[in-house]
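Exercise 7.
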Amino acid sequence: MNTEEKVSQKFVEACGIRWHYVEAGMGEAVVFLHGLPESWFSWHHQIEEVSKGYHAIGVDLKGYGQSDKKEGDYSRKNVAKELICLFDVIGLNRFSLVTHDWGTLIGDFVASSAPERIIKYIRMQCPLVKRDPSNHPQFVVFRDQELAKHIMADAKTFVSAVYEGGSLGTTDSESPESKLRTFKRTRQKIDPKDMEGIITEFSRPGVAEAVPRYFRDIEREDREEVLDKFRRMTFPVLLLQGEYDPAMPLWYYDDFDRILPNAKLQIVRDAGHFTELEKPDDVSKAILDFLAE
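Solution. The predicted structure, written as tokens, is:
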């Protein structure tokens, strides 16, 4: 029996949005928020393991998978507000939060705006304050909504390039797409069945039009605003980072304890950016160990 058969598929209206999420298990709630170019499915290994002792919930973020893809405000702060509305509707008053990549950018707003609801926060693959903008060309390239839509419309090519590197459909070295040519983020080869599942979910109608809106609507925050957001996180935090993520070197997390005094840093050895798929057993164990502390 595969993971899709073990979870319950749910749809619910909240804040005018039709959300899709999956759940499995019973007990204390643990919510999973995915990144780009993913969906709830990217967490299927962790959901299977965590649900043995907890109530695991994997959400398709707005614009992804089977959740709504309508026009609207895709800023991180607004999507976080809409997610909290979803949690209200499905009765999640207190929960631990596990996030990855763009899900972490949104999760930071969830955690800092409703800290009283967070039990623990497993924060994966996202800078705190330090960063090198040259490592993140997508934030510039994908502001062009038509270009981003064009690139993402071929889900197989886009997902394969993000995970494994390669061309995004151009041989012009001066084109914006060429800046994403070496967008390889993995250290370990991902299971072909997992790749198939990621591509299937990213191929759903409307995803290529909706996901670029996150880049269109991203807010500008100065350092003090970012630090204030982290100051509100008084619950235990685990920073779980791949050892060899080429776009997020470990120096990004220097002095992390001065920014988040109640946090600890754990490295997923010999992994790149997509740790939950590259080293699923190691990530599941790290999550479960932290939840049990």
